[in-house]
Amino acid sequence: MKFRFKTMRLPILTKDLLERASRKRTYVFRFVYGLVLFVFACTLFYGNIGVSADAGQSLGRGADHFAWLISIQLAVLYALVPIITAEAVAGEKQRDTLALLLVTTLTPRQIILQKFAARTVSILSFVCLSFPLLAITYTFGGVTPGELVAGMFGLLVACLQLGALAILCSTYFQTTAQALVMTYLVFLGVHFAWFLASDSTTFFAPPSLGGIIFDAITVWLCLAWAAGVLVDRAFVQSRNYLLEFFRWLDQVFEQMNVLTGGVVLVRDAGFLPKRAPIRWRETRKKSLGTFRYLFRVLVALEFPILFCIQWIRFSPRTDSAGDEGLKTLLDMLWIAGAALVTVHAASVISEERSHQTLSVLLTTPLSSKRILAEKLSGVRRLTAVLLVPFATIFLFEKWWYSRGSWDYVVLSALTVVTYLTVIRWTALAIGLRFPNQLTAIVGSVAVVALWAGGLTLAVPLLRYLNIEGGVLASLIRALSPVDMIVAVQDSAAYGLPGRGFPSPWEAAPGATVAHFSFYLGVAIVLQWWCRRAADHYLGRIEQPRVPGDWGAEEEVSRDATACVSPNPVTDVA
Amino acid sequence: MTEKVQAPRPMVDIRHLWVKYGSFVAVRGISFQIPRGEVFGFIGPNGAGKSSTIRILATLQHPSGGTVRVDGIEVRSDPMKIRRKIGYMPDAFGLYEGLTVREYLHFFAAAYDTLEVRRDRLVDDVLTLTDLRLKIDAQVDGLSRGMKQRLGLARVLLHDPELLLLDEPASGLDPRARIEVREILKELSRMGKTILISSHILHELSQLCTRIGILEAGRLITEGSLEEIYQRLGLMQLVHVQVVDLSEELAAHVRGINGVEAVEVQSDRLSIRVRAESLPPEDLLDHIRAFGARVRMFQPEAMELETAFMKLTAGTTA
Fold it and tell me: How far from chain centre, in Å, is Cα A353?
């Protein structure tokens, strides 16, 4: 065996596997993943048995469980695979170790394949955890052996394809964050195109030979492409693609502007910083802070909304199709807005750490509170820009449904302001604690998703398990931000015959006040904690409230005696 | 009535400093002082505790034990006041991408709350000192490594700090850039700044520093001026002398001078090993001239710091 391992010459694979095996978080992740999966599966099975009075009734329900398990696993894998894989090559570039690999006798193809294999082995260990559960669903009946195999094969293929795409992005882009974002974007784009092009929903159909060949080709194509560009992309300088895109747009607009006589609506003059240097940099030098660039983000968000509004205006007011269109738009806006604010707020500090600029900033006399406040100015500006499309929808609905009272608009505005503020401070708190930008972003997104998704799914889950939630269920529902957003949205058309529900304020004013008070309280506590812990987590000595009063004279004398060097400064003869 | 004469307060006063990271001890009770206006060289192998000590002086890290004072102020008692007195340059450049040199310096001038009306002049001054005036509108990320290092120096000078903390300022620089940085530091020393500089390049330090501290495995092995360290170690100083008519008689005469240990006659010069404590280089020069030799070059070499370093350290880490 030893001989075979030597002759296989897989140093990167061996090193990566050893490295991952020596990390505690590998086991923590796997345990948490297994725990969540098994708890979810047991919940499904328990619900099934609990609902059925006799075992015969549960027969044939395996198909539902099977579909649920596969869907949940796919969703989790789609989230996890890029996170695990995007670092493979980009991480080597960031650590300046890729050049060392390239000067060995390993070919680019070997490097890419070993990197891919190392990550895939790790991910497949996650996939394999679900196989016993899938087998149990088979015992409930309703699942054919072909579907079982197809489901497992589908999971494996999803991992391999997404892993290969992530390896390609990791090779092409210079930072793990860029590789991660591009993997998600390309993946979503391809799936959206696939969704539009095919009307097939037969994911669990037994794999055909053509399908297997197609899947293999896509994986091979990604890996071959990655191997082909590995050397060319190894030493390319890191670029801010969003900023470059905006600058390209600048050029296009400037060329077009010749026709209009050089009219400039928004001019970002080259002012130098005055009193708030960090705010100046965040709002004038960042792609998501600069006004004219934010204006473009606004246009990109506002344009489809205005288009949709026009479409609804030309449909009959009694038609409820417009309601669905607006709801979909609002959902998308919420997802985009929450994601933008989360990523931006989580990055403000961790980005400084990644670029090694934080320590220099911390030795200036700027207080940590001020650093945090100025750092967040770009995020606040982004939030303000996001308020415009939200307001467009809310005000249009107010006008369109001819609601007399303003409670819908006020409550809607309150949801946006409150939740985005909570998200901003949550992401900042997480960004303060994590040393790495990618970890901070992933951690923040996970916390926000768990907060929103967990509270939304908790009550249906209790109901499914036939558990009398009672006060707990009421409390969860009262705290759920998604439920509040849906409830407010459902009240938009209230008053029109057969449409909408009373607003939360009309239905339960006390609960509504408690809900928003609670979240505003959470935002205040988070803000207080961030400011209080800022010195500590930023990494500098705290300024005592009263300069000179750090309660240390005793400590100094104690330290000085207790820590007398066992080997004091000695004159060496 | 007798007046009590107080010794001037040292700019840096470190007593029994301990730095621990969990169970790992990085610095083990070191003590030293840096008087005002001194250039103190901090030498030690990787992991010796140099950067930890500098980070504590820069108020970026709590000491685990002992006291650390900058200009009489304990770092934990009023770090904000200390931040106004120090200029810290880490081993990483810490430069913001997407800014020009002017914007970068104005950014930090604003961070140090310098008067707005003075900023243009200030930026101009520090750029002149670091010879970067022509690059004022260049993008920071487009500068060469040496220029980035000089820009880092320009930044730390913006608020006219009394103490400069420079962590490996010459690492990764080419010879020209290293010489340029060294000249700037000499100029700053002439301006009366107290400088604490850590480096691996011993030759550079020996040319620049008035005092040296050698740190190994978290312990300060020795500290003092170069001469003091040589004396303690009984080290030889090497002096290269070129004369117009190099002869064996001259070599024999030099060998006879009290304090000269060895003389090596090379093709174009004499390499003379002297005991630094008993024969200063200027006396040696007088002796050679007194013999009637016409001296073309007289170069006392500072390379013996390497010998001192090797003799004092055992290559261990904390």
Answer: 20
Mean pLDDT estimate for chain B: 85
CA distances from B88 to A477, B60, B107, B199 (A): 52, 10, 16, 15
Which chain B residue has its CA at the smallest distance from A281's CA? Answer: B107
- Of the partner residues A280, A543, A564, the one whose CB lies closest to the CB of residue B16: A564
Q: How near does any CA of chain A get to the CA of B67, in Å?
A: 6
B148 is written with which tokens?
């980035």
pLDDT digits (tens, 9 = 90+) for A540-564: 998 887 766 665 554 444 444 444 3
3 state SS of A453 = helix
- CB-nearest to B59 from A360, A540, A552 is A540
How far is it, in rounded angstroms, from Cα B269 to Cα B194?
A: 37
Q: Which of B77, B102, B221 sits opposite A548 (nearest CB)?
A: B77
Q: How far apart are CA A289 and CA A243, in angstroms?
A: 11
Q: With contacts defined as CB-CB under 8 Å, which chain B residues touch A240?
A: 97-98
By percentage, how much of chain A surpasses pLDDT 90? 20
Separation in Å, CA A250 to CA A54, A243, A245, A266: 69, 10, 9, 12
Asked if B28 and A566 come within 8 Å (Cβ–Cβ), the reply is yes
How far is the C-alpha of A304 from the C-alpha of A557, rounded, in Å? 68
pLDDT band at A568 (very low <50, low <70, confident <90, very high): very low
Structure tokens at A285: 């030098």
Q: How far is A286 from chain B (nearest CA, A)?
A: 8
Give this complex's ipTM.
0.79
Positions of E strands within chain B: 12-21, 24-34, 39-43, 65-70, 73-74, 86-89, 163-167, 194-198, 211-216, 219-224, 236-243, 260-265, 270-275, 295-300
Neighbours of B227 (CB within 10 A): 13
Note the pLDDT of residue A447. Answer: 93
Distances (CA, A) of A61 to A64, A149, A206, A325: 6, 18, 20, 34
pTM: 0.76
Any idea what the Cα angle at residue B191 is, between residues B185 and B192, rounded to 5°? 95
Mean pLDDT value across residues A56-61: 66
DSSP state of A561: H
**pLDDT value at residue A56:** 62
* CB pair distance less than 8 Å for B29 and A563: yes
Q: Please name every residue paired with B216 in a beta bridge, in sequence order, or none if there are none.
A: B219
Q: How far apart are CA B226 and CA B113, in angstroms?
A: 39
Residue A139: name the closest of A204, A74, A36, A55 by CA: A55
Looking at residue A96, what DSSP letter applies?
Answer: T
